[in-house]
Write the C-alpha cells for this entry.
Amino acid sequence: MAVLALLVAACSPDDYSLGDKNITSDDLVEGLAYTLTHDSSNPNIVYLKSLLPSSYTTLWDTPQGRSQEAEMTLKMPFAGDYQVRMGVETPGGVVYGPYTTFTIDNFCAEFVTDPLWSMLAGGVGKSKKWIYDNGKYGFSAGEVTYGDPSANPTFGWNSFTMNWDPGAGHTGDANMWDSYMIFDLNGNANYQFYNSSTGTTQKGIFNLNTDSHILNLTDADLMHPDTWTARRSDWRRNLQIVALDDNHLRVGYIRVSGDWGGEWLEVFNYVSEDYAMNYDPGDAKEEEPELASDWRDYVEPKTSHVMTYKLNADKPYDWCNLNGSAKGIASTAVDGIEDLTLVMNNVSHKYTVTTPDGTEYAGTYTLSDKGVYTFDGQFPSLTLSADGDVTFSRSNDNSLRILSYETDDYSGSLSNLWLGKKLYDDQNKLWAYQGYQFTLQTGGAQVKRYKGGLHLFDSSWTFQQSDDVYVTTDGDYTFTINGSCSNVYGLYLDIEKLLKDHPNCDVKVVAVKADGKSVDFDDAAIDRIVGDAATTARRYIVNPWGANASTAANYSFSSSLSITVHVTLDNGKPFITDAADAKKHVAKAAKRVVRKTVRK
C-alpha cells in the first residue's frame, strides 16, 4: 500500500510522469501491483487485474500471450504450473516484475473444443507430428518465407503478406530434414521437438490462445534449423500462428537484427507427417501453363519464318511453377550468357543453338498444340549461374515447353519467350520448371542497354533502391530513391555489364539532391570499383568500409534522394586504374553487401 500511495501521488490523469518515484521490478509483484485470482466456479479461469493508476500502460506476459489491457482473463485447459508477470511503460523503458507461479489442478475439456486444438494436436487423447515443408506438397516453396514488416501492419492470423519465398534449403542446414515436432493432448498439452541436426530431443508443454492465435512453449523450442537460432532471442514465447489447417502450419515472428540484416518477418512452414506420407500429386489435376488461343501467331508468325532469340540479359532464368509463373528466386548469372542464341525456322523446322563461345548445335524440332518443343539433334548443356545450380539444357524427353510470352507494347509482336525444362522430385513427379527467358532479336541495329540502379542500406541493413535506369550511350542519367532514411550507412550506384563492353568507360557523379536540395560532394573521393560481378561498374558514394564513411549523414532524406551521373563509354583509360588494389580494398565489403541483400 505504501508503494501504491507513492505511485498515486506521482501520477494523475493529467500527469503521466513518474515524479520522483522510479518503478523497479520489485514494485511489480502480485498483491502489490496486481491481483491474480481464480474463478470461484471454474478455477481454470484466471483473472489478472492491475492495481496501478490508469495513467500507466500495463503489459502482461502470460502463457496465453501478451496484453496491454488493465485486466486480462486466462482460460487454462490443462493442469500444471504456469507463470505470469506484469510490466509497465516508463520514460526509461519497459519495466517487468518477477514471474509469479500459479497452479491449475484439473483438466477443463470445454477449453479445447475450438477446432484449432484438433488441427494442431489431433484432438483430446491424440497427437500430431509436423515436419518441414520442402516445397513439394502444394503449400509453400520451402521451409521459410519472408515478409516485409511495412506490408504487414496487422501481422497475425490469415493476414501475412510475403515478399520472398526462396525455396527449399534456404536456411542452409542440410541435416534438418528429419527433424519433427509433436503436439499431443494426452493428459496435458505436451510438446516435443526432435532436432535431426544435433540428434537431441526437447520435451515440454504448449499453450494455444485460440483468440490471438499465439503459441507459447515451455521447456522446449519451436522447431527451427540450428543455422537460424540467433535470429530470435526466445523460441518459446509469443509465437504467432499465421495459418493452420489439418495439413499445414505456419508460425512467424519478427527476427532480431544481426549479420543477416535488420528486423524482418520470418515464417516457418510445416506440413503434417501423415499428409506428407500420403501425398500424391497425381490425385489432383496437374497444373499447366495457359497460353492464349492465338499463341502460335506470335511464335510462328506468317510474316517471319526465322526467329532468332538471345537469352535475356536482365533476367535470363528463374524457377517456375507448373502454371508457368516465375517463383522469383534470384541468383548471380555467369558473365556472357546473354550471347546464348537460339534460331528456329518455322517452315523447315530446323534449329541451331549457339553457345557464348561460338559452338553450334543443330537439328530439327516439332511444336505440339500445348506449346511443347521437342528437339531431335544436338543440344548443349551449359552452366548459367555462378553457383552452378542453373544449367541450360533440354528436359530428359528432349523437350522445352512454352511457359509464357510477352508482346511489344508498340508493335504488338512477340518480344520475350519463356521456355521451361521439366524438374522432377525424388518420386519422379513433375514439380517445377527451370525457366529460360529469351528475347526476340528484331531487324535493324540492336541498341545495347546496361541496367543501372542506386542502392542504399541503413545501419540495420534495411535496403532501399531506385527504379532501374538503362544506360545506352554517353550522357547524363539520374537515379532516384523515393522514401526516407535518417541513418544512411551505405550508398552505391551499379551499372551492370558495362565494364564487359566498355572497360574504358567513366561514371562521374555530377549532382546529388536530398529532398530536392543540392548536397555537397567530392567526386574524386567516391570510390570507383567493380561491383558484385566483375563486369559491373560501381560508384560507392558512401562506403562504410572506406574513406568516405564519415559523409553518410549528408545523404539523409525524408522524401527522395537522387544521384545524377555522366556516363562516358570510352574515356580513353580504364574505369579502374589499378583494378587489383581496388578489388582487394572492397572485396570484403562487396561480399557483405550482397549477402545482406540476398538474406533480406
Notes: Residues 72 and 366 are 70 Å apart (CA to CA). Confidence is low (pLDDT under 50) at residues 1-20, 579-600. The chain has six helices and 38 strands.
